Amino acid sequence: MLFIDWLKWGYSMSIFILEDDLIQAQHMKRMVKDICEKHRLPYDFIEVTANSTKIIEKIPLTSYIPIYFLDIEIKNEERKGLQVAQEIRKYDTQGIIVFVTTHSEFAPISYQYMVSALTFIDKGLPYEERYRMFEQCLFHYQERNMGDVPTDNFIVKNSSATVRIPFATVEYIMTDEPHRLILVTTNRLVNFYGTLKEIESIDKRLLRCHQSYIVNTLQISSYDAKQKMIVLNSGKRIPVSRRLVSKVRQQLKGEL
Amino acid sequence: MYVYDLAAIILIGISHVLLYFQLIRYNRLSYTMVIALSIVFTILLGIVVTVTGYPEFNIIMLLLFLLSLGLMKDELTFMQNLYFALVSMVTITLAKLVLMELGMKLFMWTPFNLYLWTASIIHLIVSIIIVISIGLLRKRIQKIAMFIVDSNLYYVSYVLLAIGLIVGLILTMPSTNLLSILHQRYGQVIYITGFILFFVLLLIVLIGSHLAKERMLEEQQQHLDKELLDYVDKLELMHDELASFRHDYMNVLLTLDEGVRNQSITQIEQVYHNVIAPTSKLINNRELDIVKLSRVNVPEVKSVLGVKVIAAQQQNIQVMVDIPQTIEAVAMPVVAFIRAISILLDNAIEEAVCTKDKVLQVAFFEMEEHQYFIVHNSCSHADIDMQQLYEKRYSSKEGNRGYGLFSLKRMIEKTANATLETAFKAPYFTQTLILKK
């Protein structure tokens, strides 16, 4: 058991906490320590500081992806936390950033985008809930370091648009107007500039089934031969053109 | 028939179609497409007229052609369509008539010799002038047309245009019995009528243009006044809040003072829970967020955002404005951008009002090569068919509406560097407009 654990936890985490209020900082440190001991998550060090340069200096010393808990408002500077996060991102593009703030019900969306922050934790939450939030962050962190979540994104980058979406969620891409594409995922639509031709070559898992449709083969559930429609897992139906029926069938035989 | 005449006729054909498209405000066709369309049609018309020998076809077929083009525009009633087709038809025919006459008169004063082809050259020059002036004045034409259709001048000009059509028909050297008799008998009178008609129509256009400008100024003034009033209201409200907070604060200090002097921790605790803790709500009050709008250095955008945010707050929506850095410019035409964000915000406010939480978050920021405008609102629906959302007449609300998102989509699709992301994750609906710089 111990041996397996050692294999599993063969790395150590580096945890940074940026907080200028001494009491809160110690409180947070105790909480993180507690969680790590409870779930046997080993860590190299927990660096608690009110000085952001200390964090930046220590980044090169970390051997695995670090996690940062940053207070957004440091010494009455409303955006200090964000600036620190941006600074961190210059040296560490992978690390997990969590903002700790006094009012997370209105966590600024812009922060999430700008430094791809994982989440926001509200200082005002009851102890148990806050504990649970920290726990989740650390679990996420553990998963990330174990390499369980390889990033598999669908990425389009052209002169007019950049689109990045987890590949597994992509359902299909269709043309609407000339040079306009609509990407449909399970819970979002993206309307952007591009052509199906450039999309087709992005990934082998994409299948051109119609003049104006490309479907993600991961999402196909069945093929309705009578109506010449592909049925997706979500129940949506995509037309198949007569010209491409045989290609679609062949592909599906290989897949299903 | 010289080659100049041919070119002139084609140019006139183009100007008819061009003017018509400006009038009905249809701009989804590219200019090359418009030109190609008119050339094909003009040639077709030329063939029909020479084969049948009825020059009346010129006017009637052109009218029908323009009417059918109007079908591409959805929100056009038949009467308006006919009106605009008549405008394009009659004004250009009359303008050509007048300018030709004028051109010939002017030419007579010059010392040049009169050749057979002189008239053709003048014809060509007149056509070029007409096409160019339509091209240059297209914005004005659209505005004036919009104004006239809504005003009393509409009916007056309708009648005049109908007369103009008859004048035009008679002046085309018709071959039908009735028309040709009329032409022979009253040709001269009708020619002069055409002249007078042209100047009357010109007068109407000038009056319309003047009135349109006046009305626009008036509307703008009203708009500004309203904005200013809203803003002052907001400031007053904030001031009142601050004043009451100051008042409370003094009381809090007094009670605390009492507790400290008595060394009574229970009293201090009580003061904390009852008096101090609730003030955190006040401090976090998002109404102050409106101040962040000053980071937007595009006045039009700032004012639209201000109006919408205030409107939302007046409907008891909790609004958070998230503009972390200054924004100097918008990476797409400002007018289109304003229309787009107005639609996004209006929809979000309308939806948020119906929910329990009433949350609206507006973010506007730049990152790397991109500009993000995000509207995030609470949503009462459990499930949304997102693709249907953008259909023309779809609206989640009652009534004959649903053009908002449809026209938003159209606008976005015309802007190459714009990406629109629509996401729904209950209970929040998020629209992200991304502009690549």
Description of the structure:
The complex is a heterodimer of chains A (256) and B (437). Chain A is of the alpha/beta class and 256 residues long. Chain A folds into 2 domains: 2-145, Response regulator (Rossmann fold, 3-Layer(aba) Sandwich); 153-255, LytTr DNA-binding domain (OB fold (Dihydrolipoamide Acetyltransferase, E2P)). Chain A has 8 helices and 15 strands. The longest helix of chain A has 19 residues, at 127-145. Chain A starts with a helix and ends with a helix. Chain B is an alpha+beta fold and 437 residues long. Chain B folds into 2 domains: 3-220, no CATH class; 286-436, 2-Layer Sandwich (Heat Shock Protein 90). Chain B is 68% helix and 9% strand. Chain B has 13 helices and 5 strands. Chain B has a 5-stranded mixed β-sheet, covered by helices on one side. The two termini of chain B are 53 Å apart. The model of chain B has no long low-confidence stretch (mean pLDDT 83). At the A-B interface, α5, β9 and β10 of A face β1, β2, β3, α13 and β4 of B. β10 (188-193) of chain A pairs antiparallel with β4 of chain B, so a sheet runs across the interface.
Secondary structure layout:
The complex is a heterodimer of chains A (256) and B (437).
Chain A: H1 2-8, E1 13-18, H2 22-38, E2 43-49, H3 52-58, E3 67-71, H4 80-91, E4 96-101, H5 109-115, E5 119-122, H6 127-145, E6 153-157, E7 162-166, E8 170-175, E9 180-185, E10 188-193, H7 196-200, E11 206-210, E12 213-216, E13 220-224, E14 229-232, E15 237-239, H8 245-255
Parallel strand pairs in A: 1-2, 1-3, 3-4, 4-5
Antiparallel strand pairs in A: 6-7, 8-9, 8-12, 9-10, 11-12, 13-14, 14-15
Chain B: H1 3-24, H2 31-52, H3 56-70, H4 78-109, H5 118-136, H6 138-150, H7 153-171, H8 177-261, H9 265-283, H10 299-314, E1 318-322, H11 334-353, E2 359-367, E3 370-378, H12 386-389, H13 404-414, E4 418-425, E5 428-436
Parallel strand pairs in B: 1-2
Antiparallel strand pairs in B: 2-3, 3-5, 4-5
Helix pairs in contact in B: 1-2, 1-4, 1-5, 1-6, 2-3, 3-4, 4-5, 4-7, 4-8, 6-8, 7-8, 8-9, 8-10, 10-11, 11-13
